[in-house]
From TrEMBL:
It comes from Sphingomonas suaedae. InterPro entries: Anthracycline_SecMetBiosynth (IPR052164), Glyas_Bleomycin-R_OHBP_Dase (IPR029068), Glyas_Fos-R_dOase_dom (IPR004360), VOC_core (IPR037523). This is VOC family protein. It comes from the Bacteria. Residues 7-126, 142-262 form the VOC domain. PROSITE patterns: VOC.
Length: 263
């Protein structure tokens, strides 16, 4: 993939029930999700298709994965120039490695890693000559915002900025700390290039991690559909700076996600 180093290039749902997750997200987000796995053998992996391009994949957690502690959840992939070099830099900066650099034939080289605060994500260099459009700020069905809640915001920013060149693009105060907007290195000053934010977690007992917001056309309809299909909205839709409306939810298998729509 030709995306710059430090770009979000893919998103992945890990689920113990592929068919239930497929029905839920197709109805809530509007994706078309493959009925059959694209992977040979026992590993089940399906592609999530937005109206104008692919936005991610869905990995079915098998019995061995579940026995090993895997749980339903969303993970993001950050594109890097060199997976092996990035992993070595990550380890030197206090991060950890869950899956070492590995090739997926005809797809790319990846590693599953965690930051010093324990937040898990992937780094990857895709073999495709085309750029990923999985993240598209205003693209319906795409990830529109990437948000990190962490136990140490200053240490987290130092880690990610050193690894990926991410920069702060201003901030706004929250009751529990600064909500810092993030952009890629040398992206300029426009808020249009901001792709997400990070903040301290609201309470010590809250889990750390990235939350990904999928863009839908109507937030009220999506909120009602989440409840109808067995998900759990964690808040009512609320307006955020810029005029968009958002809410968090968990799907019926327990994976947390966000939805965003125009006002």
């Amino acid at each position: 993939m030709t995306n710059p180093h430090g770009s979000w290039i893919w998103y992945e749902l890990m689920t113990p029930d592929a068919q239930a997750s497929r029905s839920f997200y197709e109805a809530v987000v509007g994706w078309r999700i493959d009925a059959e796995s694209m992977m040979p053998g026992d590993t089940e992996y399906r592609i999530l298709h937005a109206p104008d391009g692919d936005t991610g994949g869905m990995l079915t957690l098998d019995a061995a994965m579940l026995a090993g502690g895997a749980k339903a959840g969303w993970l993001g992939y950050v594109g890097v120039e060199d997976v092996d070099a990035t992993v070595e830099q990550l380890k030197s900066a206090g991060g950890s490695v869950h899956v070492p650099p590995t090739d997926i034939p005809d797809v790319g080289r990846f590693a599953m890693v965690a930051d010093p605060q324990g937040v898990v994500f992937y780094v990857m260099r895709g073999f495709s000559p085309e750029s990923s459009t999985a993240f598209a700020r205003t693209g319906e069905g795409h990830v529109s915002w990437n948000e990190l809640q962490t136990s140490d915001a200053e240490a987290g920013f130092a880690f990610y900025s050193g690894l990926f060149g991410w920069e702060r693009a201003g901030s706004m105060p929250m009751p529990w700390g600064e909500y810092s907007f993030l952009r890629g290195k040398d992206a300029g000053d426009s808020m249009e290039v901001v792709w997400g934010a990070m903040m301290p977690r609201e309470k010590p007992e809250h889990p750390v991690g990235w939350t990904f917001y999928f863009r839908v056309s109507d937030i009220e309809t999506a909120h009602a559909k989440v409840k109808e299909l067995g998900g759990t909205p964690l808040s009512d839709p609320m307006e955020v700076p810029g005029g968009e409306r958002v809410f968090h939810a968990t799907d019926p298998q327990g994976a947390t996600f966000g939805l965003v729509a125009p006002k």
